[in-house]
């Protein structure tokens, strides 16, 4: 394995203490069952979401989204700047959107992933591509020819539905930066329990639910235009009817989240106004 | 008019303020920005702290893992700090592997841990030669507005005070380790090092807690790390304009005062979450 000279290294190998937790396995299974039996979660319940825009001083636009499962995503966006390759034919007649998605090393519940490792970079690239797919239809790229818009998302804590939260945070950040957009892209995640093949799809799963899910789905919707910008998912979900139902549930969830995000943008704009006039 | 002058001649603009012994944001030369601390917000980490020094925001998350100690120090655990300056904290940083500034900051934090003996590595050892704790301290800057070293050191201290390690015993018969996640003990923090940074202007003037603009205009920086017994842990002066001995003494005095302020803040925060 090539040595990473840029970071301070610890021991070559280390394991999380949870691996050797005595009786932890039985505890978890017992707790899981108890939880499911005692309070079966309402699959359509949308848990509270906290969104705040305009909190970083160095970025042109920024947003922070926190879900009640503990997922915390911070996103910064920068408006149009000159594209790296000037000239050339109008292959990209509009602007380009470049996205970046990073996980903090302390964000996962299990072992700490080595920053800079190949698997880590691969996962980040995938997530960044998914983010870009979800955001591109929402931004009016045609208004920024030969320009580059940058979005950078940082996941501070993963409590389930991380990518969906990142999509919402990124579109809030872009709007906060003053980039012209058709609409905000709202993200929503769903998953299905492995136990029941015809079971219900859960909206906005928590971390434990997501981990043992048999099928997962992440949706991004432009609510005012009622257009879906990205659908990402897979797994053993059962018949196509079930997937159709899941999509409808997800779209409904996005519509319900939309007013919260708009409110946060409004508040940020008011705060900025007050700061300027003061 | 003032903003035009500021853009064209930033140094002159700044000197006008310094002549009146104050700075553009209204602070005195020896005044720190408003400092706030928030601990325990990241539940997936074993300990975490978020520090805001004015606009500069730094978050530190500590994750504890188990590993075999190194062959030449069989009774010591590891503390591995890492400072990350991601592209979201400022436009001057690009995404990718850590750049120069991040590496320098990581090395500074590692030196602070080593020199001040904030945690004795022997305390992290569970079984001599077989099992020890590794504390991975990841410090991520969320908003870069100068004085990253002070904020990182403070975040590290607050996060380490917040860490709860599960108790580990080695089963005599099987030789395997058993971890009890329910029973947690806090870390033993021996010393409380606090860093104070100064920016040097025109070889003579010292300004405490520089913002990003001030750092760019400065001709040098000095960071002093002191511990609670008013002793000097380390002086970090990476090049820049030279300082007289008297000026350095002033810096140390100011650092000692700052240490008291910071210690009070940390104690208040720790006490506020104690009834848990």
Task: Sum this structure up briefly.
Chain A is α+β, with helices and mostly antiparallel strands. Chain A is built from five helices and nine strands; from the N terminus they run H-E-E-E-E-H-E-H-E-E-H-E-E-H. The termini of chain B are far apart.
Architecture overview:
The complex is a heterodimer of chains A (278) and B (276). Chain A is built from five helices and nine strands; from the N terminus they run H-E-E-E-E-H-E-H-E-E-H-E-E-H. By secondary structure, chain A is of the alpha+beta class. The N and C termini of chain A lie far apart (56 Å). The radius of gyration of chain A is 20 Å and the shape is globular. Chain A has helices spanning 24-38, 118-135, 162-176, 207-211, 240-277, and strands at residues 49-53, 61-67, 72-82, 96-103, 147-157, 186-192, 201-203, 215-222, 227-235. A five-stranded mixed sheet of chain A has the order 1-2-3-5-4. With 276 residues, chain B is an alpha+beta fold. Helix content of chain B is 30%, strand content 32%. In chain B, the strands form three sheets. In chain B, strands 1, 2, 3, 4, 5 and 6 form a six-stranded mixed sheet that branches. In chain B, a hairpin with a 2-residue loop joins strand 2 (47-53) and strand 3. The termini of chain B are far apart. The mean pLDDT of chain B is 89. The chains are: A alpha+beta (278), B alpha+beta (276). Chains A and B meet through strand 3 and strand 5 of A and strand 3, strand 4, helix 3, strand 6 and strand 8 of B.
Strand order of the largest sheet of chain A: 1-2-3-5-4
Chains forming the largest contact:
A-B, 49 and 55 residues
* Rg of chain A, Å, rounded: 20 Å
Could you tell me the number of beta strands of chain B? 12
> Strand-and-helix sequence of chain A, N→C?
HEEEEHEHEEHEEH
Helix and strand sequence of chain B = HHEEEEHEEHEEEEHEEH
Rg of chain B, alpha carbons: 21 Å
Q: Which class do the helix and strand fractions of chain A yield?
A: alpha+beta
Main location (chain B): cytoplasm
GO molecular function (chain B): identical protein binding; mRNA 3'-UTR AU-rich region binding
Pfam family, one (chain B): RNase_PH_C
Family (chain B): Belongs to the RNase PH family.
């Amino acid at each position: 394995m090539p040595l990473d000279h840029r970071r301070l290294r610890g021991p070559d190998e280390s394991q999380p203490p949870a691996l050797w937790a005595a009786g932890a396995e039985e505890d978890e299974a017992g707790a899981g069952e108890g939880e499911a039996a005692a309070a079966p979660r309402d699959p359509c319940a949308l848990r509270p979401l906290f969104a705040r825009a305009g909190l970083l001083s160095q970025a042109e636009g920024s947003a922070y989204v926190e879900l009640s499962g503990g997922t915390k995503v911070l996103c910064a966006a920068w408006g149009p700047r000159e594209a790296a390759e000037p000239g050339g034919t109008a292959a990209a007649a509009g602007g380009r959107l470049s996205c970046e998605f990073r996980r903090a090393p302390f964000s996962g519940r299990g072992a700490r992933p080595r920053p800079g490792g190949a698997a880590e970079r691969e996962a980040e690239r995938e997530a960044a591509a998914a983010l870009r797919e979800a955001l591109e239809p929402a931004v009016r790229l045609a208004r920024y020819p030969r320009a580059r818009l940058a979005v950078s998302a940082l996941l501070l804590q993963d409590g389930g539905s991380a990518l969906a939260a990142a999509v919402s945070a990124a579109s809030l950040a872009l709007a906060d930066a003053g980039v012209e957009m058709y609409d905000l892209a709202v993200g929503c995640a769903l998953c299905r329990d492995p136990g029941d093949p015809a079971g219900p799809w859960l909206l906005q799963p928590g971390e434990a639910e997501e981990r043992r899910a048999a099928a997962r789905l992440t949706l991004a919707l432009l609510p005012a235009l009622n257009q879906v910008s990205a659908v990402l998912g897979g797994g053993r979900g059962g018949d196509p009817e079930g997937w159709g139902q899941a999509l409808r549930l997800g779209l409904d969830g996005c519509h319900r989240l939309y007013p919260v995000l708009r409110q946060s943008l409004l508040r940020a704009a008011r705060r900025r106004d007050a700061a300027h006039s003061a | 008019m003032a903003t035009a002058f500021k853009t064209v001649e930033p140094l002159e603009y700044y000197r006008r303020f310094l002549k009146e012994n104050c700075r553009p944001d209204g602070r005195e030369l020896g005044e720190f920005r408003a400092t706030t601390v928030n601990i325990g917000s990241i539940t997936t980490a074993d300990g975490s702290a978020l520090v805001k020094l004015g606009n500069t925001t730094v978050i530190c998350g500590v994750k504890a893992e188990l590993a075999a100690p190194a062959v030449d120090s069989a009774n010591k655990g590891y503390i591995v700090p890492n400072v990350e300056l991601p592209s979201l904290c400022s436009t001057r940083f690009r995404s990718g592997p850590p750049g120069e500034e991040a590496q320098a900051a990581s090395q500074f934090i590692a030196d602070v841990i080593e020199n001040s003996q904030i945690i004795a590595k022997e305390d992290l050892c569970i079984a001599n030669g077989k099992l020890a704790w590794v504390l991975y301290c990841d410090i991520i800057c969320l908003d870069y507005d100068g004085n990253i070293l002070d904020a990182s050191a403070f975040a590290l201290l607050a996060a380490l005070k917040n860490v709860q390690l599960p108790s580990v015993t080695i089963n005599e018969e099987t030789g395997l380790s058993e971890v009890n996640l329910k029973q947690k003990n806090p870390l033993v923090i021996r010393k409380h090092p606090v860093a104070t940074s100064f920016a040097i202007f025109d070889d003579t003037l010292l300004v405490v807690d520089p913002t990003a603009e001030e750092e760019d205009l400065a001709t040098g920086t000095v960071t002093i790390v002191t511990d609670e017994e008013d002793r000097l842990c380390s002086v970090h002066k990476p090049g820049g304009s030279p300082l007289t001995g008297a000026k350095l003494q002033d810096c140390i005095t100011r650092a000692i005062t700052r240490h008291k302020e910071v210690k009070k803040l940390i104690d208040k925060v720790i006490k506020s979450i104690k009834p848990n």
